[in-house]
Design goal:
Blueprint (H helix, E strand, L loop, with lengths): L1 H24 L6 H29 L14
């Protein structure tokens, strides 16, 4: 399920960045919805990168990050 979400996210980022680049080239202002969407995508990207960095740092120091305890039936 992560594959389609990553694909849609990448398409959205590509669309927003190419639109902003084109508007900068033509010296036009960006529409507010495109600017706000770009800010949200930037925040989501930064948040995910910090989350993944934290998980990697915890696993480097020997902590089991995001481990699910196993339940055994008696």
């Amino acid at each position: 399920m992560a594959g389609p979400m990553v694909f849609v996210y990448a398409l959205l980022v590509c669309f927003i960045l190419s639109g902003a680049s084109r508007n900068a080239k033509l010296r036009r202002p960006n529409p507010p919805i495109m600017q706000y969407t770009g800010y949200v995508l930037c925040g989501v990207t930064g948040g995910i990168s910090l989350l993944l960095f934290g998980i990697a740092a915890l696993s480097w120091f020997g902590f089991a990050a995001l481990s699910v305890p196993s339940v055994t039936a008696i």
